[in-house]
Amino acid sequence: MTKAGTDARTPALDAVFERVHPPTTFEETVERLGTAIRLGLLGPRTKLPAERDLAHELGISRSTLRQAITTLVQSGHLVSRRGRSGGTFVADEPPLGQANDGSPPAPGEARAVLDYRIAVETGVLVLAAERATGDDLARLDELTDKMAATEGAHFEDYRRADVRFHIGMAEACHSPRLVAAMTEVQGHMTDLIERIAHPDVVLSRANEQHRGLVSLLRRSDVGGAIRLMREHCAGTEHILAGLMPEAGAGL
Question: What is the pTM of this model?
Fold first, then answer.
C-alpha cells in the first residue's frame, strides 16, 4: 500500500494536487482525481492524504472534497475504509476509461483528440531530446520493460505503463505545463482506446516503437524521434479506425 504523500511526488502528481479554481471546484476535483486514478498516476491501493490536508492542498472546502470523494467511490475509482488503518484508497481495479453509454464520439471529436496528441507528443520530443537526463531515460527504459512483461496479461496493466511512458517523456522536458498537456492527451486517448480490442501483436509493435524512441532520445536525434512518433501515432489511428465500432465517427 502506498501513500500519495509529497515524498514520492512526480511532476505529473504535482499537477494533480495543484489548487482547484472556482466556480467548478467540485467538478474539477472529480475530473482531476478521476483522471489521475484512471491513468495510474495514483495507483491501486494508494491512500489519499487526510481529508483536512487534501482539502487545504486543493484549496477547496472539506464538504466539496467529501462530495467529490463520494462520487469517485460510487464510480468505482475509490474505496473508503473505517477503523484505525482506514482512510480513502484507490480501488484495487479502478476503471481504465470513463464510463460511456456506448454512443459514438461527437462528429470530429476523435479527430480533434488525435491531432492534439500529435502536436503535444512531437513537441515534447524536441525538448526531451535536449533536456532528458540519464535518470529520465532510465525510467523510460523501465517502463518499456514493464510493458513487455505485461503483454498477454491484463491490458489495463500495459496501458497504465504506456501512459506513464508518454507522461515520462513530458517529465523529461522538465516543463510542468507540458506534463499537464500530456496528461490531458493521455486521458482522452485512454477513453478512445478503451472502445477497442487490444491484440497482443499491436501491443508488441507499439512497445518496439517505445524502445526506439528512447534510443533516439539518447542520441538526441530529434528528426528520427519525430518521424517514429508520427508512425507510432498513425499506427494507433489505423487501429482505432479498424476496430472502433463507430469507426466512421470523426476519424
Answer: 0.76
